[in-house]
Fold this sequence. Notes:
Elements: E1 5-10, E2 15-20, H1 26-38, E3 45-50, E4 54-57, E5 91-94, E6 107-110, E7 123-129, H2 131-139, E8 145-153
Antiparallel strand pairs: 1-2, 1-8, 2-7, 3-4, 3-8, 4-6, 5-6, 5-7
Amino acid sequence: MTNPIVTIEMDNGDLIKLELYPEIAPNTVANFTHLVQKGYYNGLTFHRIIPGFMVQGGCPNGTGTGGPGYTIAGEFTSNGFKNDLKHERGVISMARTMAPNSAGSQFFIMHAKAPHLDGDYAAFGKVIEGIEGVDHIAETPSRPAVIKQMTLDAGDYEVKEPKVSN
């Protein structure tokens, strides 16, 4: 099976290609690909930018307070789900509140290694091309980082509705 590839096209022309790992976090990948396919992320921003740590996007409000209207269960070790993908530079993971099953649409891409997140957040893919796009976001936090569009090359991966927890 080929893994799904998501391309993030930024408004400045940067392209960030992500390979997603359904074998590591199947429902998280189902959720993300479903949202990408619906055009959910088009026009949203990276609203939380911490150079040397991560860049976070996917909030419809642009503030870190919104989501798609549902949540999914967290696919990570401290929530009883085996996920060994480490939070290293370029890894994409789901953002959430303190509640383990509160992820919705917000995600973050690691700008640098952060082992303290391992086992507590649902990592589900990594940047395979265009890591400099992540660098541009991280290194210019005062400039709005707008996602022009996200596109999905599903390959032979079948996009499904995610299993929601609320």
